[in-house]
């Protein structure tokens, strides 16, 4: 009979996600993962099968948390404009850290070589774009935004802007500069 698991798998995935976010996939060794999670390498492999499988779970968890955040934000009452600005600020990581977006980082690092990363990234980006589209359409219906641009086109532009901003955040720069960019983008709707 094996020893009982001494850690919570969901918490371990969150901690692994944070380590992958800081160091990237290639820059994170299985030993570093085991140390970060406070477990042996054998437990790491017994629980998660491989570094790659744990990375996929971490990306899935990241996607869940981001989409939950956006759904909650866009279902709240009130004007859409400040909620879109807040969503873009949080998604790009403006003022929070210099790590950018873990999904953008993963797609940039592994996208050409890892179809699973591409699948998860495409899913997240598609869902974010759909939530942006719905919020923009709501703002157009309420008269908060103009109707001269289609909501789907505007949503695609917001998504591309968030992805680009997350790279700029990772490269450094003043958060005020990025907030001004977000203000200009959303105010232009």
What would you say about this model in short?
By secondary structure, the protein is mainly alpha-helical. Helix content is 74%, strand content 0%.
Task: Describe this protein's structure.
It is a single chain. Helix content is 74%, strand content 0%. The protein has 189 residues and is mainly alpha-helical. The protein has one domain (9-187): Tetracycline Repressor, domain 2, CATH 1.10.357. The model is unreliable at 1-5 (pLDDT under 50).
Mind sketching the topology for me?
Blueprint: H1 9-23, H2 30-37, H3 41-48, H4 51-75, H5 80-92, H6 102-110, H7 115-142, H8 151-171, H9 175-187
Helix pairs in contact: 1-4, 4-5, 4-7, 5-8, 5-9, 6-7, 7-8, 8-9
Order of helices and strands: HHHHHHHHH
**Rg value:** 19 Å
* CATH homologous superfamily heading: Tetracycline Repressor, domain 2
How much beta, percentage-wise?
under 5%
CATH architecture call: Orthogonal Bundle
What name is given to the CATH topology? Tetracycline Repressor, domain 2
Which residues form runs of ≥5 with pLDDT under 50?
1-5
Can you identify the CATH class? Answer: Mainly Alpha
Say how many strands there are.
Answer: 0
Describe the sheet with the most strands: none
Structural class: mainly alpha
């Amino acid at each position: 009979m094996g020893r009982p698991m001494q850690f919570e798998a969901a918490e371990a995935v969150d901690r692994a996600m944070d380590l992958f976010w800081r160091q990237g996939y290639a820059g994170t060794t299985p030993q570093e993962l085991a140390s970060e999670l406070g477990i042996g390498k054998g437990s790491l492999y017994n629980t998660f099968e491989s570094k790659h499988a744990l990375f996929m779970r971490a990306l899935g968890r990241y996607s869940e948390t981001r989409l939950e955040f956006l759904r909650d934000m866009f279902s709240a009452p009130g004007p859409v404009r400040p909620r879109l600005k807040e969503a873009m600020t949080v998604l790009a990581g403006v003022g929070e850290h210099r790590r950018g977006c873990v999904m953008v980082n993963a797609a940039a690092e592994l996208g050409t070589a890892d179809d699973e990363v591409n699948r998860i990234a495409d899913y997240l980006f598609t869902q974010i774009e759909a939530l942006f589209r719905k919020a923009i359409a709501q703002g157009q219906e309420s008269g908060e935004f103009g109707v001269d641009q289609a909501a789907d086109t505007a949503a695609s532009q917001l998504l591309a802007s968030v992805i680009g901003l997350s790279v700029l955040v990772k490269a450094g720069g003043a958060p005020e500069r990025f907030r001004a960019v977000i203000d200009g983008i959303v105010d232009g709707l």
